[in-house]
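Q: Structure tokens for this one, please.
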Amino acid sequence: MVRLSHLLISSLITLGANAESSVLDLIPDNFDKIVLRSGKPALVEFFAPWCGHCQKLVPVWEELAQSFTFAEDKVSIGKVDADEHKELGRRFGVQGFPTLKWFDGKSDKPTDYDGGRDLDSLSAFIVEKTGIKIKTKKSPPSAVEMLTDKTFKERIGGDKDVFVAFTASWCGHCKSLAPVWETLATDFAAEPTVVIAKVDATAENAKSTAEDQGVRSYPTIKYFPKGSVNPEDYEGGRTEPDFIEFLNEKAGTHRAVGGGLDANAGTIASLDAMIGKLSSGSSLATISEEVTKAVKGLQDKYAVYYVRVLDKLGKSQSYAENELARLEGLVKRGGLAPEKLDDLISRSNILRKFSKQESIKGEL
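A: Here is the predicted structure, written as tokens:
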């Protein structure tokens, strides 16, 4: 009974997806008419629903089909469930999934597609075969800094931490990394002391740098601390959270997934420890004097904000609570420049350290 329900739900999901899909569903009854005798070429995926690689290809294949809907009279993008329709798979020598084949629309002898399975590679293949000029959307400028032999020497060892991915244009893993790397660069775009960069190790103007850095496989990722030309090889995971965690630890930043700041941004642990004494009976005046002295030896831009908040609390015991509410309102309203948003979040984090000290009101 449970299995029947599962199959029914799966079928409904499939029907719903197919209703909106731009990919042609090919079965034994329509395959010859659409693919072999239409006079129109077709790129066909032979897949199995249980295949992990096939599942990963689904959104790419759908986007590919959508990209060529304007030329549906000139080329078809289709798929065959070769697990259900085994006869079609056998007919065209399909032995693994996914298998991609190109049909010229005139014969039953397709050619295998052996290129990359990303949108750019698939689109380029169809354009090469058909001469169709694809309509592309203008992409926003990249937040990743491309480094050459010349700019690499200028950037590394300076006043910024540099996180570099050495890639190759033909590398499938590099293509998978590309959108994650772009997202990471966007996350750190407002971070003035961090650079997310890339070196095309196969480009003539960057080959020398890759060789000098001992790059032998792709992608190779290296972290260069500010002021140093000696890198640390990155060997962690390749997800956005993995990269952010690594950079926060190494560069002392406080970025969160999505580009925002975490709950510790702006705060200073040594000063927080002093503020914490308020809850153990220390007077506001004593803490204020202690913090003021400590701030003189700190370079952190938010150190003086602690002194300011303490001064305001001496005049109004509800300052931290009221100011926090005001800043949160500004953040919620939106429309702020990235730098301003970072500043408000950092100050809000500091104010929360004060608002947690319940003894403040009693002492004032």
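A few notes: The beta strands are 24-26, 42-47, 76-81, 99-103, 111-112, 145-146, 161-167, 194-200, 220-224, 232-233. The chain is about 45% helix and 10% strand.
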